[in-house]
Amino acid sequence: MDAIDEQLDATARTPRSLDCFNHRLISGLFGTLLIYNVVPATNEMIIISRISANLVWYRNCLLKVWFYILIRLADSFFLLHIEYIRNRYQMLNYELRVTTPVDLLGAGKSKRTLAPDVIHQRIVQLKRVQNYLKELNGAVNERFGWQLFGVITMLFIGTTIDGYWMYANLHYDSGKYKVESFLCGISPLLMFYMLFSRCQHCINEGQMTFYHLHNVFGYILPTQTMELVRLF
């Protein structure tokens, strides 16, 4: 991560660009962890407080809530890495977007043409950043892959059990715990949605790199630069 930040800071076209993206990373990470941890935990505490009269449900939910807390703590580290990779891909794409032979300068929006060797040097630096991001992405997949498989399996089992409870309660117990039975499915579904959506957003941001490179393809550049672009 330090190598990625150092390279991006050295490559940035605008001053304090890295600080700006760091602020965006912190705000995005705060929102993600708030939704992923606080909302499900609050929902589970509400369920437990309302079903203490039903001993079976109470014991089951009290046991599951500790598993969910441990799962969310472990997944928080995964989400931290995902948000970081996504944020750095956003900065990489921003730098690619401004790396064109035509550059807007100053308040008057005057234009100048960047030299091909300058563009080539920036492409080399940004390619190095992308290589670092690919290595980090591979390390995250290797470290958290089996963990996520276990999480999804446990979420599926938990959701299936809760779904059966909903059916049994609503059809055979006169809907005594109707609200609580539906609340049981919120936590696993929300956790699964957050994991899936954050991973998908990260993948989409990585794929946007190829889109921004089309800005460079529209200009006459040295062959070695075009070959380097194709390696992205």
Automatic annotation (TrEMBL):
Pfam families named among the record's database cross-references: 7tm_7
Keyword Transmembrane helix appears in the UniProt entry: yes
Record's subcellular location: Cell membrane
Family annotation (InterPro entries): 7TM_chemorcpt
Spans through the membrane: 65-82, 144-167, 179-196
GO cellular component terms listed in the entry, alphabetical order: plasma membrane
Alphabetically ordered keywords of this record: Cell membrane, Membrane, Transmembrane, Transmembrane helix
A biological process from GO: sensory perception of taste
Topology of the protein relative to the lipid bilayer: Multi-pass membrane protein
The protein, known as: Gustatory receptor
Lineage, opening ranks: Eukaryota, Metazoa, Ecdysozoa, Arthropoda, Hexapoda
